[in-house]
Amino acid sequence: MALGLKMDFELIPAIDLKGGKCVRLQEGIAERATEYSDDPVAVALRWQDQAATRLHLVDLDGAFTGTAAHLDVARAIFRPLKIPVQFGGGIRSLEQVDRVLSLGAGRVILGTAAVEDPDVVEQAAKKYADAIIVGIDARAGKVASRGWVEKTSVSAIDLAATMRSRGILRVIYTDVSRDGMLSGINVRETEDIARRSGIRIIASGGMAGFDDIRHLWQRRASGIEGVILGRALYDGKLDLCEAIQKLKELYAGQENHSLP
Prior knowledge:
By secondary structure, the protein is of the alpha/beta class. The chain has one domain (10-258): Alpha-Beta Barrel (TIM Barrel), CATH 3.20.20.70. It contains 11 helices and 12 strands. The chain has an 8-stranded parallel beta barrel with strand order 1-4-5-6-7-10-11-12, surrounded by 8 helices. The longest helix is centred in the C-terminal third of the chain and has 19 residues, at 240-258. The chain is globular. The two termini are 16 Å apart. The model has no long low-confidence stretch (mean pLDDT 91).
């Protein structure tokens, strides 16, 4: 691959925190959690050592209760990492956004606030620009809030479009019914939301292997700019170093194909 070739698609390993430990949920259900490590800092450093360019960190307890519960753990992760971290879970006010960014987060993820208090999202976007990212979690195309427990009548596409009008540049779109199930990313719906809303999308939920990455990468012109990697990494279905190398090869093949 030629030097200087821009990688416009990002592979982002995830750490979900519950009770101070790294876990993965199935379909967003708190009772269906698999524990992977009681040392989230070590896990974060492992993903950094394997060439991750960003980390996705979620406070599940905060998402369910509405009050961030793992700020000390988050700060302990921010400090040694050289890569940026996007952090969410229970952040529903501008004051909480201020605090999380002051602790060292690179991005703050707002989820429930986007549905219940979009003015907060708009204020945060005006103050911090692209450091604010909205998480849209949906079942059958309808947004689920408050830790995926409450299903709303709001469509994921409509919320994405509203967030764009409020100044948000990107969203994380998760098909909750696939999350943690290794059943494959909902590529069609992810692409549809990106094209119809005009907002940048990071895909999430159901990653099964590199074929999902390839299918999303092939559709990045629609606005898909990355994917969250969760259980596939933790269960050994996907190797991060290998996936990054394969992604580079996709870019190299594209570049070579475009040469005269």
